[in-house]
Amino acid sequence: MTFETLASQGNQTIYGSMAATIGPRVNEIRNEFIKDCFSDFRKTKHRLEYVANVHGIEFINDSKATNINSTWFSLECMNKPIIWIVGGLDKGADFEMLKSLVRKKVKAIIWLGKDTQRLQSAFAELGLPVTHTESLKEAVEIAYYAGKDGDVVLLSPACPSFDLFSDYEERGQEFKRFVDTL
Question: Residue 157's domain spans which residues?
Answer without folding.
Answer: 49-180
